[in-house]
Design goal:
The protein is elongated. The protein folds into 2 domains: 281 residues, Rossmann fold (3-Layer(aba) Sandwich), CATH 3.40.50; 182 residues, no CATH class. With 488 residues, the protein is α/β, with parallel strands linked by helices. Helix 10 runs antiparallel to helix 11. The protein contains 15 helices and 13 strands. Strands 1, 2, 5, 6, 7, 8, 9, 10, 11, 12 and 13 form an 11-stranded mixed β-sheet that branches. Strand 10, helix 5 and strand 11 form a beta-alpha-beta unit.
Length: 488
């Protein structure tokens, strides 16, 4: 969903209870790339897991019913006028008019990431969250958003249904609340809305925006006269909606201006992974809080904590790969093609190649399994089908983060002519699996040549583990591009 630029769930409500879950673990796979504002001239991009980078959060919620589509407004806020994209589902898209059953209380999240161009709507990354449903019925997620957001835009409309809601319950003096008040054709009357507006006029922050409709000019004029009396700077905070132009578009243009002003202050920027404590404080569960997730994270950290220089680590820990494996692959290919036979007879040349392959396999079999590889193999053997995916995801997360940092350093030094091969700086789970595969092939050779017995084998169960990983949906890389080899 994220790769297709769709909003993804951040807080998921339970179907059968009033509980909610913060999907931090589910978001750790998302990696984004953008060009920071201070690197626009150099065109140097940043690439990071979206849960680790500190980005200002701007949230959108509504109080009561709202005649305009909040999601549609957000889509237009995040899209250039000529390139509209549906980040958030709304009722005008295919399937968007399905009756809502479990979406109330759902918080979705999307990101705007600049490309370092003048046409960027925003020159700094922004996290956008959208609370589905009425905030009065979803106080936990609303409280969470209030605590983590730089600004919370609250959409309010003056329809009769709102008279049942408690306007006065909202703390209008909260510094990060920004009220978007849609005054339709009806006149402002005595009641909770009028009390709310009076309280709002006493706040120094002046964070409000009124929308007046031209449908009834007399009512619109009276509403403006009333608002002018209590809001001295009304001209800067009012939109008189033109009925001939899309109302959502008119509002979105104003919101873009407001968001640029708010995000330029760079206040209250936190990474998503640092918001877990806030979720606990408002009694929202965190998906990483389960025992399986905690234990496997600890093991993944133990395996990756010793990785400093990636190229050095691969050379010292994964000795069966690299030059030796590349030579093996070339020898096996030459054994089939016999291109460099020269003056030797076919049998003599073939015997020479086989002898060299046997020597390399013996050298491989004499290597000891490194400690990190032991921990990795032990996890593959002993972990249950339910626990293993947690471990594999954590390990992939940490290895990817290490590789990104290492490759970035290489790319920066390559500009000065000091860079190494980027492939040497890439480290993933496939490298761990390849190393185990080479141990298995070396052991198979020793068994076939009669140099070890069945009872001495240590890696005979690896094919079973590989099959189990495939059946569980984990991809295994069969073709190794570095060595141009298919280790079957």
């Amino acid at each position: 969903m994220s790769m297709c630029q769709f909003a993804v769930p951040l807080i998921l409500p339970a179907v059968d209870s009033n509980s909610h879950t913060f999907l931090l673990f589910g978001l750790r796979d998302i990696v984004k790339r953008w060009i920071p504002n201070n690197q626009r001239q150099q065109k140097e991009y940043a690439e990071e897991s979206i849960v680790q980078h500190s980005i200002p959060v701007i949230s959108f919620v509504r109080l009561g019913e709202y005649s305009l589509s909040k999601s549609k407004i957000l889509n237009q806020v995040l899209s250039p006028e000529e390139q509209a994209h549906d980040f958030f589902v709304h009722h005008d898209i295919n399937g968007g008019d399905v009756n809502r059953k479990i979406a109330d209380g759902l918080v979705e999240v999307a990101w705007y990431l600049p490309a370092g161009m003048e046409s960027d709507l925003f020159h700094d990354p922004i996290t956008i969250t959208n609370l589905r449903g009425d905030l009065q019925n979803n106080k936990k997620p609303f409280c969470f958003l209030s605590k983590i957001s730089q600004t919370v835009f609250i959409f309010i409309e003056d329809n009769k249904a709102l008279e049942s809601h408690h306007f006065t319950d909202i703390n209008v003096s909260c510094k990060n609340y920004f009220f978007i008040i849609n005054l339709q054709s009806s006149k402002i009357i005595d009641g909770k809305l009028k009390t709310f507006l009076t309280n709002l006029s006493c706040v120094e922050s002046r964070k409000y925006l009124f929308m007046i409709h031209k449908d009834n000019k007399d009512t619109a004029r009276k509403n403006i006269e009333y608002l002018t009396k209590i809001f001295p700077d009304l001209k800067q905070n009012i939109i008189v909606l033109n009925p001939r132009i899309s109302q959502e578009r008119q509002i979105s243009i104003k919101l873009q201006v407001l968001m640029k002003e708010l995000t330029s202050k760079k206040e209250n920027t936190n990474a998503l992974q640092d918001m877990a404590q806030v979720a606990y404080d408002v009694r929202i569960d965190v998906d990483e809080n389960c025992k399986e997730c905690k234990d496997t994270r600890t093991l993944a950290l133990e395996i990756t904590k010793s990785i400093g220089d990636v190229a050095v680590y691969k050379k010292e820990t994964m000795k069966l790969q690299g030059d030796a494996w590349i030579e093996l692959a070339k020898l096996e290919k030459e054994l089939c093609q016999m291109k460099n036979q020269g003056n030797l007879s076919g049998q003599a040349y073939k015997s020479q190649l086989i002898k060299r392959i046997e020597d390399l396999r013996r050298q491989q079999s004499q290597q000891r399994l490194p400690e990190d590889m032991k921990k990795f193999l032990d996890a593959l053997i002993r972990m249950s089908k339910e626990v293993l995916p947690f471990f594999l995801k954590w390990l992939k997360f940490y290895l990817d983060a290490i590789s990104r940092d290492s490759i970035l350093q290489v790319q920066q030094t390559e500009e000065k002519g000091l860079g190494k091969n980027i492939s040497d700086r890439n480290l993933g789970m496939e490298h761990f699996l390849r190393e185990l595969g080479q141990f298995y092939e070396a052991e198979c050779f020793m068994k076939e040549s009669g140099e070890i017995q069945d009872r001495q084998r240590k890696f005979h169960h690896l094919p079973e583990i590989g099959a189990r990983l495939l059946l569980d949906g984990f991809p295994l890389e069969l073709i190794d591009g570095d060595a141009s080899n298919i280790p079957l």
